[in-house]
Amino acid sequence: MPEPATSTDFARSASPHDRSGGFQPQYFEELAALEARNFWFRARNSIISWAVARYFPEARSFFEIGCGTGFVLSGLARSLPKLELYGSELFAEGLIFAAKRLPRANLVQMDARHIALAESVDVVGAFDVLEHIREDESVLREMYSAVRPGGGVVLTVPQHEFLWSKQDEYAHHVRRYAAAELRDGLAAVGFSVTRMTSFVSFLLPAMYLSRQKKQRGDAFDPLDELKIGQTMNSMLERVLAFELALIRRGVNFPAGGSLLAIAHKQRSRK
Question: 140-154: per-residue pLDDT in tens?
Answer without folding.
Answer: 999 999 999 999 999
